[in-house]
Every structure is written in structure tokens, then in C-alpha cells.
Amino acid sequence: MTRLGWCAIATAVLAAGGAVAVVFGGVYDVSATKEHVQPVYTVMETTMHASVRRHAAGVAVPPLGDPAQVAKGAACFRDHCVLCHGAPGVPQGAAGQGMQPLPGPLVDGARRWRPAELYWITRHGIKMSGMPAWEFRFDEAELWAVVAFLQQLPSLDAAAYGRLQANAGDCELDRPERRAPAHDRDPREQALMVLRQHACTGCHEIPGAVDSGPQVGPPLAGFGRRSAFAGAVPVTRENLVRWIRSPQSLRPGTAMPDLGVSDEHAGQMADYLLSLE
Fold it and tell me: What does each C-alpha distance from 45 to 36, 51, 105, 122, 221 come to in angstroms?
């Protein structure tokens, strides 16, 4: 074998050894008190920007800027975004201040992102950043209302932001009639995503879902073969939807929380679980 070949093998062995040390040796500090080194941060940021641009390219932007639309977006931003991003004259919450990577303020968001990209980020979230996918909490009108508000945010000082919020009303998420944004996912893929986005995989092992092996709640494999759940509740689609939406109504005192699941999403969850043979 040539010297070049041996050098290539040695390089591969060293790279593999380094990867093993990072993954299994605990070399990389994953604590939130140790920020990413600049090259890692730059690579992550560049990758994220390129991904958003590509995936948002086909998003059609509706008319934006109606005062009622902006007010609704301001309410949703105040109730669900300020905790991490802050606002003019309003600091981030303690959780947002301590996150890594840091969720920056959005007062310049409209300068850095096009409306279609802001919509895509708000709807789909960003993996491993703390940014959630609001598709499963906001309807289509609310998603675009947030974008419309973000378009106005750079022009607001603290006083103007305060006046807008004072008249913005509420952003009510727990509405049984709320319709999720349209999607083109397979029904099973959609159901699994709904289960993940409502944190079901944080407590239950669910076939088809990627998780870290939770052992808080019972595993749900073979759920469709069961005759009862939650003690002695008969397994029917109606009971399962009711359990998902309001566990305390079927079993007072249960540790299963009310997750604010809409009727639509509860039905998708129930259909998937009942299909598990």
C-alpha cells in the first residue's frame, strides 16, 4: 500500500477515535452554562438559515398588515413568544435568558427574514433550539397574524408596543373548534407528529415514534387490542378522544394532564393508537 493510502487509513482511524471520544467519552460539554465555540455556532446558524430559505421557498404570502390581524398577532406574541424573545421595553423571561443557543430578540426579525420564512419558522419550529412548532397550537390565521405583527415590530418603541398590547385582546389556544393549518402529510405521519408535539412521547413509548425510552406512563404498543385503559375505561374512539382532551373527566386525580389538545388532533391521536395491533 502506498504512503498516501496509509495516511488516509490513519486519518480515518483518528477521526473515528475522536468521534467515539465525543459521543461516548463525554468530552463535549453539553451544559447550557458552556456556550458553543464560534465555529460550531457559525455552522449551526448557516445550516439553519439555508434550511429555512429552501423549505419556505414555496410558501404563498397572503395580504398582511390589517390592523385587526396585527392586533391578533400582537396578542399571540405577548402570550407565547415574549418569554423567550422579549419585546420593546420587555425583557425575556428567566428561561429565555438562560437558553443555549440564546433565542434573540425579534425586533429585527423582519429585516433578517422574509414573511414566508417567518411563517415557516413559526409554523414548524427549529430542532434542538427550543423553538417550538406552533402549527399545533395556532391556526392558519394566527400564524400569519404573528408574521404581520413581526413586520410591524421594528417600528415600535416601548411606548408604542405597550399601547398596542393594551388593546390586543387574548390569544386563546384551547378552543375545541380550532382547525389546524392544512398539510399534505400521510395520516399516520400526521398522527405521530401530533403525538410528539403534545409531548406524549415524553411519557409513553409509542410504536413508530423516535424517543429516549420514557418510562413515566405505560407503553402504548398493542393499544388497539386492549379492552380497557386508565383502569377500567372501555376502549372506544369516543372514550379515547375524551381521555386525551380531558383526562380528569374520566378519572379524577389521574397524573395524566390536560394538554389542551383540539378535537381534531385528539381524533388523529385516537385513530393512530387504535390502529396499534
Answer: 11, 10, 16, 17, 38
CB 191 within 8 A of CB 271: yes
Taking the CA atoms of the chain, what radius of gyration do you get in angstroms?
23
**What residues have CB less than 8 Å from 268, skipping those under 6 apart?**
187, 190, 191, 194
Closest to 139 measured CA to CA, from 177, 184, 191: 177
Q: Where do we find the cell 425510552?
A: 213
pLDDT at 182: 76
Q: DSSP secondary structure string, 60-82? A: PPPP---HHHHHHHHHHHHHHTH
CA 41 to chain centre: 21
Backbone angles phi, psi at 234, to 5 degrees: -60, 140
124 and 64 in a single domain? The answer is yes
Domain count, the chain: 2
Look at residue 9 and tell me if it is in a domain. Answer: no
Residue 242 belongs to what domain range? 187-274
Sign of torsion over alpha carbons 81, 86, 91, 93: positive
Are 204 and 101 members of one domain?
Answer: no
Q: Of 215, 209, 270, which Cα lies nearest the Cα of 242? A: 270
Would you give the end-to-end CA distance of the chain in angstroms? 55
In a domain, 37, yes or no: no
Are 131 and 71 within one domain?
Answer: yes
Q: What is the pLDDT of residues 151-182, one digit of tens each?
A: 999 999 999 999 998 888 888 776 656 677 77
Ramachandran angles phi, psi of 274, nearest 5°: -70, -20
Any bridge partners for residue 228, and if so which?
Answer: 234
Average of per-residue pLDDT values in the chain: 89
pLDDT in tens, 96-115: 888 888 888 898 888 899 99
Q: In this predicted structure, what is the pLDDT of residue 119?
A: 97
